TrEMBL record, chain A:
The keyword Oxidoreductase does not apply. Pfam families: SBP_bac_8. Keywords: Signal. Residues 1-17 form the signal peptide. InterPro entries: SBP (IPR006059), YnjB (IPR027020). It comes from the Bacteria. The keyword Amino-acid biosynthesis does not apply. This is ABC transporter substrate-binding protein.
Length: 404, 274
């Protein structure tokens, strides 16, 4: 404990193994990078709200890094990655280009777009990672983060697909698609609500309604189109305003975060919750927050899938060690460990077929949590994520037309 | 005319005391229950099942809670100590002497306690960033001094205003060195006030969230930050366990200084008065 305290005290001065110069690293071989990484410290800023995810990172990942590479992993728990994007932005404005406070972030979506557009990401290093070979970069859902090309600026960590949760003891037969869900809401006043966008999850629910209003995602792919947005969004606001009186508390108010919706669901005030990462349902049941009879489902009309990533900021002082962390996270063994139900239950971001026979057998042996709808089942009806411009227009429109 | 029954007054006083203690302690009961709950959902009055899991997590060295407790204590103690070093002489100057611009100095000292924290944070962050102090424990301690120093200085100013400087003069005439005078005369006289100011300083630093988050950049993980990351994720059980740990040092400091703070130790000051 004392040692890590003194590490904190010393953080103001430059780290011992300073590998801030990313261009120099890119000219090296992987063995050289590993040698540079030895003895380094990686400050990994990540959402810290799940004890099981925290335990996986501070336990399995940190232990392996220490034992195999003598790298100290300092997991920094945060509540919102947007705060860290702002932190790095203000570091850039203050002229801090090689001694930033962040070495690695867990990120995706709008935050990635901000980092990439602001020149805040360290790009072009992903090909150097040996385990990059396990990633299927031909898959557009991995090569694009919310429609923004990844371009070697971040490394995939998990894939997720939106799903709904219900208590099978209360609602034995949940609606099968968006149209049926809207009917269900009208037939059961006060039993459904969604977090007000721009909450990450509430915004995702809004996009499902938007895609439903468009009759499918085909017209919405690609860059933002004002004319299409105009007609489809008008229909979306009509649907949402029409169901508003049937929502929890008559739609007078909306939960402000997914945490609030989860709490409402846990206390039986509403009959559904939903999440971008269905593994969270299993974690909530294992934590005792949700009933054992919780089950989850996708929609026949499809649910949106995405990938989340790890990213090294442009001014990270320990780039070599952060790259070793990224490589380890991508390894078949680490991806298998976090896929285990009792560890996290997260779906892998790598192609299982490209891993060793042992790892493949491990994946085959995983028995899913009964509350978590299997990824393979969700994947049967998958929708692509819309580009960030659509997202922003939708969130703004919702605030004006529905949440006013 | 009825004479008031003294026993009834006593009973009323006891009742009022209990009611006050109840309102202070009752909000802690759900925290304690949550910390050992394995699921506690409406409409159940008590948790459905009990579990030591939140405490196991909070006390597990890998979770960083204990480390954070040590760090929070270190920061609060260091802040209090530095605040005393600065605040005692400053309080003495404000309390004992009249000088030009005293009103403005007092106003400036009060400013950080009056201004909204968010306004202070933005400016401070920019300055600290350029000085390379963000993300460091030293930077966080320095930042905590901003809201802490006004309390320390103003309490000490009030204490010194009641101190008779003639006492020090007498000690000096009797041959005491300046240090002996401070140790044997001044310090005993101001000690109860210093304890009160120290308690304020410790608790103000202990409860900082915004300043720690901004200046520490998330890297200096004090208990309020850690607690918030679990509460915002809806983990009431772990939040409850950390909250109870979070209360402990404050209680400890309060118990240790209660005698001085409640004025029972004030006899010492009075005894010194001529």
């Amino acid at each position: 404990m004392l040692r890590s305290l003194s590490v904190l005290l010393l953080l103001s001065s430059a780290a011992l193994a300073d590998t801030a110069d990313g261009e120099a690293l890119k000219a090296m071989t992987w063995d050289q990078i590993e040698a540079e990484a030895r003895g380094g410290t990686v400050n990994w800023f990540m959402w810290g709200g799940s004890d099981m995810i925290n335990a996986y990172v501070s336990g399995y990942v940190a232990d392996r890094l220490k034992a195999e590479y003598d790298i100290t992993l300092n997991r920094v728990p945060i509540t919102d990655a947007a705060e860290i994007v702002n932190l790095i932005l203000s570091e850039k404005e203050a002229g801090i280009t090689d001694a930033g406070s962040v070495d690695l972030i867990w990120i995706n979506g709008e935050n990635f777009r901000s980092m990439k557009q602001g020149g805040l990401a360290f790009c072009g290093h992903t090909d150097l990672l040996p385990n990059n070979a396990l990633v299927d970069w031909d898959n557009p859902a991995i090569a694009n983060d919310f429609g923004v090309p990844v371009d070697g600026c971040e490394v995939p960590w998990n894939t997720v697909q939106f799903a709904f949760a219900h208590d099978s003891a209360v609602v034995p037969a949940p609606p099968a698609d968006m149209a049926a869900l809207l009917d269900w809401i009208r037939a059961n006043p006060g039993r459904f609500t969604y977090p007000a966008p721009p909450d990450f999850t509430g915004s995702a629910f809004l996009r499902h309604v938007f895609i439903h209003a468009a009759g499918g995602p085909d017209d919405l792919l690609g860059p933002f189109d004002p004319a299409t947005f105009e007609t489809v969004s008008a229909r979306t606001w009509e649907i949402l305003n029409e169901i508003e009186p049937f929502l929890w508390r008559g739609g007078q108010t909306y939960p402000t975060s997914i945490t609030q919706l989860n709490e409402l669901f846990a206390n039986g005030e509403v009959d559904f919750s939903f999440n971008y990462d269905p593994a969270q349902f299993g974690l909530a049941v294992q934590a005792g927050s949700w009933p054992e009879t919780t089950r989850s489902f996708g929609l026949a009309s499809g649910t949106i899938g995405n990938t989340n990533y790890t990213l090294i900021p442009f001014n990270a002082p320990n780039k070599a060690a952060a790259m070793v962390v990224q490589n380890l996270l991508l390894s078949g063994e680490a991806q298998l460990e976090k896929a285990k139900t009792e560890v996290w239950g997260a779906a892998p971001a790598i192609e299982i077929a490209r891993t060793s026979a042992e790892v493949q057998a491990g994946f085959a042996a995983i028995k899913g949590h009964p509350s978590v709808v299997p990824a393979a089942e969700l994947a049967k009806a998958a929708l692509p994520e819309l580009q960030a411009d659509w997202l922003i227009a939708l969130e703004k429109g919702w605030a004006e037309k529905v949440g006013n | 005319m009825m004479r008031p029954d003294p026993r009834r007054a006593d009973r009323l006083r006891l009742l009022a005391g209990l009611a006050l203690a109840g309102t202070l302690i009752l909000p802690l009961v759900p925290l304690a229950l949550w910390s050992v709950a394995q699921g506690w959902r409406f409409p159940h009055l008590l948790p459905q099942a009990w579990s030591g899991r939140a405490w196991a997590h909070a006390l597990d060295p890998a979770s960083g809670v204990l480390e954070s407790l040590a760090l929070t204590t270190l920061i609060a103690l260091a802040t209090t100590f530095i605040a005393a070093l600065v605040g005692v002489p400053a309080g003495r100057a404000l309390g004992l002497y009249r000088f030009r611009g005293k009103g403005i100095v007092t106003l400036l000292l009060l400013a950080p306690a009056v201004l909204p924290a968010i306004a202070v944070v933005f400016g401070l962050h920019g300055v600290f960033l350029r000085l390379g102090l963000t993300g460091t424990v030293a930077g966080v301690i320095l930042a905590h001094l901003v809201p802490v120093l006004p309390y320390m200085t103003l309490v000490m100013a009030a204490v010194f205003a009641r101190l008779d400087p003639e006492l020090e003069a007498q000690a000096r005439t009797l041959g005491a060195t300046p240090f002996q005078t401070f140790r044997c005369v001044t310090l005993p006289a101001i000690l109860p006030g210093l304890m009160t100011a120290g308690l304020f300083a410790f608790l103000v630093s202990w409860s900082q969230y915004l300043l720690t988050l901004a200046i520490g950049g998330g890297k200096v993980q004090t208990l309020p930050l850690l607690m918030f990351s679990f509460s915002s994720a809806g983990r009431n059980d772990i939040t409850g366990a950390i909250a109870l740990i979070y209360i402990l040092p404050g209680l400890l400091v309060l118990i240790l200084t209660a005698r001085q703070v409640t004025g029972r130790g004030a006899a010492l000051t009075q005894g010194l008065r001529p």
